[in-house]
Amino acid sequence: MNATISFDSVLHVVLALVGVAVFVGLNGLLLVYAERKVAGFIQRRPGPYEVGPQGILQAVADALKLIGKQLVRPDRADPLLFWMAPVLAFFPVLLLFLPLPFSPLLTGWDVNLGLLLILAFAGFNVLALLLAGWGSNNKYGLLGAARAVAQSVAYEIPLLLAVLAIAFQEGTLSLSSIVATQGSMPWQWNIAVQPLAFLIFLISALGETNRAPFDLPEAESELTAGFHTEYSGMGFGMFFLAEYANMIVACSVCTVLFLGGWKGPFLDGAWWFLAKVYALLLAMMWFRWTFPRVRFDQLLNLNWRWLLPLGVLNLLATAFVMKL
Amino acid sequence: MASIFRTIADLWSLVVGLAITGKEFCRPGVTVHYPRAEVTPESAASFRGPIELIGLDKEPAKPRCIACMLCVSACPSGCIAVTRAPAPKPTPEELKAIAEAEARGEKPKRPAPPKAPGTWTYDFSLCSLCGSCVEVCPVDSIGFSNDIYMVGTKREDFVFDQLARLARKAAARKAEPKPAAKPAPSAAPEAAPAPAASPSETGAATPASEA
Amino acid sequence: MHSADTLRSRPTSCPAASADGGCADDQIAGDGYTCRFERGARPESLILNMGPQHPSTHGVLRVLLELDGEYIVRAEPVLGYLHRMHEKMAEVKNPAQFMPNMGRVDYLHALAWNWAYVGAVEKLAGIEIPERAEYLRVITCELNRISSHLLWWGAYLLDLGAFTPIMYAFDDREMLLDLLQLMTGSRLTYSSFRFGGVYTDASPAFVQGVRQFVPHLRSRLPMYTALVTENIILRRRIEEVGVIPPDMVTRYGASGPVARGSGIAYDVRRAEPYSVYDRFDYEIPTRAEQCSMARYMVRMAEIEQSLRIIEQAIDSLPEGEHMHPKAPKPSFKLPAGESYFAVEGARGKIGVWIASDGGKTPYRVKLRAPGFSNLALFAECARGTLLADAVAILGSLDMVIPEIDR
Amino acid sequence: MTPETASVTPDVLLAPLDPAYLADENPARTGLRWSAFLAADALPRAAALLLEAGWHLEDICGLDVREGLAAVYHFDRMAAPGRLAIRVMVDRDAPMLPSIADIHQGAEWHERETADFYGIAFTGNPNPAPLLLPEGMEGYPLLKDAAARAPLAALLAVPGREDTVLRKAEGFTLLEPAEDAKPAKAAKAKPAAGEEGSDNA
Q: Which residue, of A20, A52, C153, D96, has the fewest CB within 10 Å?
């Protein structure tokens, strides 16, 4: 880390954190709305429609409702762990946005270990899910938490392997440098060089963010709501926001690593970055409303039997090519 | 090795699925958006909604019902309650005749109660819409309405005074065919435009005016 | 061996309950079923009450599970949350008055129950039915079977985590309900068969609607197959899961798609031919795999077979009355005697046994619900599977709780 | 189950159990193919023989009649359809029957249901808890008042049933019409039901 800690840089980070919080909040609303509209259109119904024109304020109304609701804690739940879990799920995610390069200028904290930072802080999420499941003293919650831990731990490995392949290739862990080395045209992006790593990353990201078809920690037809069975009001709201925030981070990292970040065929800028992130998010929603859920052992099998060996092979191949 | 290829082929099914949902995404919705769009009248026509009384051809505000009570006994849920209309008050001449008859020690000839219901209440909250009453009615005085969008906020909303309902409906129908013309100064006073009249008010819609 | 006394008194809510209703310390609090279940459980296992409010127990079924991790060591369904004592109601109402109940036993295939009861009464009282009514019964009952299978299909996919198929199924089902509304006046709890015929005659709109619907649904089925049946995730979820060997089918008296999914070509429409089913050309789909996928495939094939039956029936719909002129009045008295009438419902063999002493109301009516026997085998079938498999197995049995509890 | 066992009729199958009554019925009239009266203690043996021959249990119906309680077991075969009703009389004062749930596992729930409705105890049922009715509920809903009970014969032995009695033990009087069994009414209603009943058009 070469940045000397000055007042300026601290101010920059604080401002960035505020900006990120606003960004995450707004995106939470937007994505909830988008998710429901996508579901509606895929299922040939209008989706949210009544609150505001085309139901655009539905997410706001929902958020207000969640904020206004009483926070209920089950009688025998552990108060500390129970309330810590949603906080722990949500706030560390904000940090993950700091190193993301939205554009060459729009970066919260341009550190040369940005990738590492994201991967390190992403681990907090699983802790939060574990605490939520354990702390709520609910059997479904416990099963969900157990699933969450096994799933997160497993899927972090292929994720890392995919990321490592890019890091090998680029020789840096700074996200903005990774974008900088990619060209403007789609065939100059890393996805053209590393399609396998991209696929592994995408699937692992679905697993890491507990999105369908890998939404096993909360699989509602099996575990009612899994780890957040007992949460109401904003307790649930925080998990909800954290899930969407995690999705944005995962898609952002994917954009940076594989899709050329802020670069595009014309007019480079943050809007290219956002367009790619939202396209990936839409794809994630598309998956959710199309596929059935996998079974837990299949989820782990997919990881250990397919993604992990493929990731290692890919890494070896990358290393071999780089050596040449 | 073969299994690897098969797995890859299997994964194609996921792409096919995505293509289908993607295609459906672009097609227009199919839901009927209720307050803005309603089920077509043709579609509602065959719907068996809460039962209603059917009026006489000549006097649509008066039911064909002869208060035979067959529907009351046929109903599996006991949701129909009918009482006979009371006998009309004897006219002065009849009163005189009765008094004379009594004086003679004969059985006086009192005016017979009309073959018509005095009250006709129906509790839709108990009804299972089986149609037993419609089928047993000897004078075809009961039919299904096709009221699809009926709502209520309390149980009492679904206890209907059918005579009042019939009168309201008849009045509404009377007003309908000539909307341009000034509504006839209601032939019957109870046919006044009171669409949400309370049952008790319109209960007087069919006083035993036969006598 | 228990003495007669202890067996006659119903068990109290909890064998280990203290005076204030609480359980002993070493037992998890719960009602009698949980406490009884608790005994003999391994100390390290997890006792989980799945239901009565659970997204995939389809209503209010409760399943007590003993879990080792996510593996099911033991399962015990607990019924009765939707019990309405239809059999008692049958004893206090005359046959015509009991008919509305038949729309509410199995609300997904109400017309089959209509038919079972009407058939039993007609058999007992020797009531004849006009041919046109027989055809109309076949057509509406088969339409209803399709609507039941479509709803099952959507709900099953919901159990397996796919949210969209149920909406597509409802899209098609809505057309079916429109058609059935034309014939019966209702959209779900039909009470439209009558002793000696059917409630309404088929209108030209109905006949035309059915003719249009058959090719429409046929054209939709390939989409269902491509979206769901061939989906690799679905296949991996339900293939070789919940294997029910034929001997298990016999031991539990299971029927319908559960039996046919185990390779037993048993269908009441063939085994005890009733009405005019023997005039139509259709197949009894069976699968040899015995797993959940086999039951899935059987139901999907049955939709096609039902379409075939409807097509033939609507083409050969005879003219005539829809009610027999000598059909009895609703208040008629059942003659003394007994009769058992079985029909093939969407879930299997529906049987109605009526015993009458010639009084105003039947002396005893027994409703044989197919789901009751089908669900009974769940405990044995789910042993050793994963929790997610239990959901897949429950769904593949196609339960309708009101029918099971009656 | 082999094709040979599938063709064995219940009269041969149940012969070793010495049924008090066994009749060949007309399914067009009653939906039954055979009916039999068995002693309670012969029930498990009968169930085992039937299972071996490929029969499955359809349902168990309790019945409250003047002679006591009764249970009717309906069996059917998938390979060669035909319904068999096995009737067993139960003592009203000590209503007990042996359970067949260890043979036909599906019987467990049917027995528990019958226990709920009639208070018949099935000894040997693996889980004799209430099935459909709540725990601790008083009374048995399908039991009838003494005045409302009909004799068994009024239900099962109406004239014109056209069943061929294959076996009848000495002293088996359950199906003899009782004096006050309203036979006139039954007889009047029956002729309307011709050979071509409702069951096959």
A: A52
